[in-house]
Amino acid sequence: MADRVAIILAAGVSSRMNTQMPKVLHEVCGRPMLAYVLDACRKVGIGKIYVVVGFGIEHVRERFSDAEDVVWVQQQEQKGTGHAVLCCKEHLKDFEGETLVVCGDGPLIRAVTLKILIEKHEAGQTAVTLATAVLDEPAGYGRIVRDAYGNIQGIVEDSDCTSEQLKIKEVNPSYYLFDNKVLFEAVEKVKPDNVKGEYYLTDALALIIATGHKVLAVTAVRPDEAKGVNSRAELTEANKIMQRRIQQQLMDNGVTIVDPDNTWIDIRAEIGQDTVIEPFTYIHGEVTIGRGCRVGPFAYLRSGTVLEDDVVLGVFTEVKNSTLAKSVRARHHSYIGDATVGQNVNIGAGSITANFNGEKVSRTSIGSDCYVGSGAILIAPLELKDGSHIKPGMVVSQDEIDKFGKKG
What we know:
The chain folds into two domains: 4-226, Spore Coat Polysaccharide Biosynthesis Protein SpsA, Chain A (Alpha-Beta Complex), CATH 3.90.550; 232-404, UDP N-Acetylglucosamine Acyltransferase, domain 1 (3 Solenoid). The chain contains nine helices and 34 strands. Strand 2 (27-28) and strand 3 (31-32) form a beta hairpin. It starts with a strand and ends with a helix.
């Protein structure tokens, strides 16, 4: 098996995004776009990844500071995809394996597609293999030009296409696997002979074909994963596609999602078998939900929340950074923040944990088999022992608990 590295092109500013943030840090279902591309590379066994970053490199590096397999490469001036690859030359000039090249603003990439690309490359013993897509609406994408026998002759960028080439529906979503030496020999020869005056990686491909190297284009990219993100509207579309994937996987694993179109679940969430997610539920961040729970409608679960088995959260209930043990019930209009709740606890309608005093956040601990009546306010820091009974409308602080003992 050949040695293999990856180059991720992540230096674009994207004026269409109208943003002060590096484009690849914009989130799709709770994670930066770049995170999905890194994960796809890792899942196909790539151990060293060169990420080419320009604008905001310090912010990108900080966000991925724990990525030990990443080498950060700065592209001082954004002169095109070919120039971005060339920025990696000093790192890879002596590398004799294969180099995968993909884009950092393509969060819908799937590892299974990269696996097909690698397998076709190895089976065909080619200098370059690229994965293509067929789109009903190919505008904006480079077109794949083939000869009468189906052999790839080159890629023409959308802005440089003739009227006939614009009718081609097979496009280049920028999934490439190169013989590394062939790649760098070609990119060094690329000239900016195009409308934008940029150094295109696709022109390097044309040079490789012209020198007689074997190049293969395999149609392996699904239309949904071919979509890159260059605008806020495209970011929204990427979120919708990723959300469908997340929910489909959860449903395949035994979770009932009553109304997928009106439910939002973060990719970092974990949900157990036979749990039911009601409409208009929003699950954000690292949330863990056990088996046989019922959440919603109109529930909001925030990062750090853990629901053990058989927990019921009802309408307009919010939980943040809290652990709710087995068989807790909080059916109506409650807020549970920074709390630990024991088994078989009932949280009445409108009850809340008051966890912030204007200066710091404090925690609430509620023991097992407790009853918290409707409209109660539990002022943190607070500890309620097992079996405590809080009457409706009470305002409870630790000072009162210590002074008067068990409330009831």
